[in-house]
């Protein structure tokens, strides 16, 4: 468990944040300038705050009241930057060994063969960084961080420098880290898709202060928390793969409601996370008939929040979970939508992007580190 309480005054900005990060991935979420990277830099020992305390696994890294401020090299951290920052003259194998060289004697650590398998980099071991793609470099950087036997991993927008194809390729490896590594990961992102797929918990920041914290479903489905802007609004549903159909569709169950998506690779029984963008949800007062859309979910309007312009965000509680719909205020008035009223959410099967579909956390899968 990572425990953080910080306060720091800048010339035009005050950071005031307090939160806990369990094992798994805790995502600091918010728009640029909200204080996410500042929190990570303080946790890394790169910036000393005016006041604060940080403990990791019961070990005090910072306590300004008692004059404790461990230097970066004594904090037992693994840091994953936006770019891999590998040593160009060393092979992948040697870069990984460099991380292991920093593991304290007798410290609990990951076994190198398991890390290589976890990240799928066995075929890269004899290559140098110049022969790797951006996604491959990031996977090696993750491995180097893991092998240093860290008590905490910091990841400052680790996918920001990758194109969409490479992001999609590396997200499953972060999902495996979340489920299989017993080290808290503090992860900075302003991408709602990354939050939806990866987060064990979310800390939403705005202007240096925490505006919401909780699970990805709780934070992203709150209409008052839109750190990335209304256009990025969306909600997270958890569903289980039921069956694959011969016409290329996969049927999932979400709260007893069937959902259809283009065929997924996951086997029946697999738990999935789906991010449904608010602009892809159409609302109807009555259950519509004669539509091509396959997914129709009845629900109750939990909140209707008008925007500054012509738009509005509607939060709809359905058996599958809370959905958000981005519609115009004119449409809301024409339909007579109001809190407590009923409505149906209409979602096309093909509207959920592959990047917004990920594996759900597997309870009980986290594995212990091994002693050296």
TrEMBL record:
It comes from the Bacteria. Keywords: ATP-binding, Cell inner membrane, Cell membrane, Membrane, Molybdenum, Nucleotide-binding, Translocase, Transport. SMART domains: AAA (SM00382). The keyword Plastid does not apply. Residues 1-232 form the ABC transporter domain. GO terms for molecular function: ATP binding. The keyword Cell inner membrane applies. Residues 290-356 form the Mop domain. NCBIfam families: modC_ABC. This is Molybdenum ABC transporter ATP-binding protein. The gene is modC.
């Amino acid at each position: 468990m990572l425990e953080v309480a910080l306060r720091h005054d800048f010339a035009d900005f005050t950071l005031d944040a307090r939160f806990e990060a369990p094992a798994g991935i805790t995502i600091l979420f918010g728009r640029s300038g909200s204080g996410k990277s500042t929190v990570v830099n303080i946790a890394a020992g790169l910036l000393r705050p005016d006041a604060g305390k940080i403990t990791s696994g019961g070990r005090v890294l910072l306590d300004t009241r008692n004059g404790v401020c461990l230097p970066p090299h004594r904090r037992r951290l693994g840091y994953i930057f936006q770019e891999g920052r590998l040593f160009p003259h060393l092979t992948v194998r040697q870069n990984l060994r460099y991380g292991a060289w920093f593991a304290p004697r007798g410290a609990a650590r990951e076994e190198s063969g398991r890390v290589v398998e976890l990240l799928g980099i066995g075929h890269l071991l004899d290559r140098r960084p110049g022969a790797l793609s951006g996604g491959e470099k990031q996977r090696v950087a993750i491995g180097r961080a893991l092998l240093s036997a860290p008590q905490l991993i910091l990841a400052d927008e680790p996918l920001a420098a990758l194109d969409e194809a490479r992001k999609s390729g590396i997200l499953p490896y972060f999902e495996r880290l979340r489920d299989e590594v017993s080290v808290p990961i503090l992860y900075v992102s302003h991408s709602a898709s990354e939050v939806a797929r990866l987060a064990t918990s979310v800390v939403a920041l705005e202007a240096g202060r925490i505006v919401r914290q909780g699970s990805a479903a709780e934070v992203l489905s709150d209409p008052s928390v839109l750190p990335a802007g209304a256009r990025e609004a969306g909600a997270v549903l958890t569903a289980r793969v039921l069956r694959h159909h011969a016409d290329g569709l996969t049927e999932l169950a979400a709260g007893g409601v069937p959902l259809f998506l283009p065929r997924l690779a996951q086997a029946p029984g697999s738990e999935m996370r789906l991010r449904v963008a608010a602009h892809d949800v159409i609302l109807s007062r009555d259950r519509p008939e004669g539509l091509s859309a396959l997914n129709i979910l009845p629900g109750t309007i939990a909140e209707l929040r008008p925007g500054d312009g012509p738009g509005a965000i509607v939060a709809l509680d359905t058996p599958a979970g809370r959905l958000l719909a981005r519609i115009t205020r004119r449409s809301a008035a024409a339909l007579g939508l109001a809190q407590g009223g009923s409505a149906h959410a209409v979602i096309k099967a093909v509207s959920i992007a592959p990047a917004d579909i990920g594996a759900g956390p597997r309870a009980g899968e986290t594995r212990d580190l091994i002693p050296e």
